[in-house]
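seq as requested:
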Amino acid sequence: QHDIEQGHLRYVSTDPEFRTEDITEKLMFSVTIGKQVLENNGFLIKIKSAKITLLRISPNELNNVRRGKITHNELEAAIEGHSIPANLFRYVILKSPDKGKLMVVDEQLRAGSTFTQEDLKQEGLTYVATVRNTEETQDSFQFQVFVGDQHSPIYTYPILIGIDPDVPILMSRALVVVEGGTQIITKDQLLTVGRSTTAFMYNITQGPQHGKLITQHSTKEPVTIFTNDDILQERLMYEHDDTETLEDNISFVVVEQFEDAGPEANVILGTLKIYITPINDQPPVRVVNKTFNVTLHGQHLLTTAELCFHDADSDFDDSQLIYTKWGISNGNIVSADDTAHELSRFSQDDMEKKRVLFKHHGAHQGNFQLQVSDGVHQTAAILEVHALEPYLEIVNNSIFLIQQGQESNIHSYFLNVETNMDIWSEEEIRYQVTDPPKHGKILVNGEPNLTFSQKDINTGQVIYYHDNSRHSRDSFNFIVEVKEIKAE
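struct tokens:
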């Protein structure tokens, strides 16, 4: 109450929009008197519409010049229905220009600075571009106009800045290089041209990361400084390091070759982009090498969990690898969609999408040969096949740590199984908790549950929640079942 009596409480409108009519805002508050609280009190605030408008706001255009004038011919405010002296219109800068300086007489205008309508009529404002640009660009400043206790909406004054005629022009176009190859950098890819000179020097500031710049007839030491003359004489080359990369970049600064490097020197920042054309030079390499276990006289999907190759070529998709099989001693490979159709060729994509099925017959142990091709290179491989009675083993039954009172996912690397049975879906692997945890609980999809599948585990739906007791150890017993085969 004391703040109100002393006039400390003020209301400030933050609405930037121009309103043609008065609006009302309602302030809700509560009052506390001792232990008594008075709720739901309302206080109406009437916000009068701003009557100050701009008669004109014309962009300032700098064409081949670095300085321009803003007068009342470009910027003028007025109050509707009133004739007000020019010196009463006070402009307040809310945001100053980013790419230049705004001046009134010899004073620079910054955020919070003011000028009047009279200043616009008498001297005008001067805008001086400080950016050194080789392309057309824009700048602006924001302001409000005040007359007494009235104010305008927030306005933005645009400034169009043409190309600086004194700034050298850097021309840069992407260089295309074959993987592991060398390419000359010509004036079609990189060159700097000034109004009166072409003598420019380039200092590399970053890169290249996947190759190096060299000059012809040199010792192939990387180049860090080069000139326009090196480019024009076609002495400068980029040499790729033959890695499986698709792009590279060289960042540099450009200065006049014989100019003193003082604070006013023209410095241009540039980047030469390099695109690498890949070539198929990497053979497929086996990344999964397991014995293929099947049930005796049964069948089993052949997937990338048992057999998988990788091609390191950067533009190659491993799913496109083609497998050609021959010489199977104890079974045959058929289409999972049509088991009467034997497959002599199939892709890695077929294995990823569970379209390749192995059917056992004959000896318990055998193998078959494979040729894996990326279309250019071939790699030979042998897949060992063991046929056994159906089995189910628990693997990765690991201890995992959890903070007191917290919860943690039971991931597949904590709990998983290994089997030679033909499983088409992880939902076929079912877990049943027989002895629940004593100091926590198992949650499945957010609810307490003692049964779940391998799919629930793999998708992060199975959680152990600790009950916040002081017990530092807990456990639970379970049975896992697949096709009536159980393990515990």
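The CA atoms of residues 99 and 358 lie 70 Å apart.
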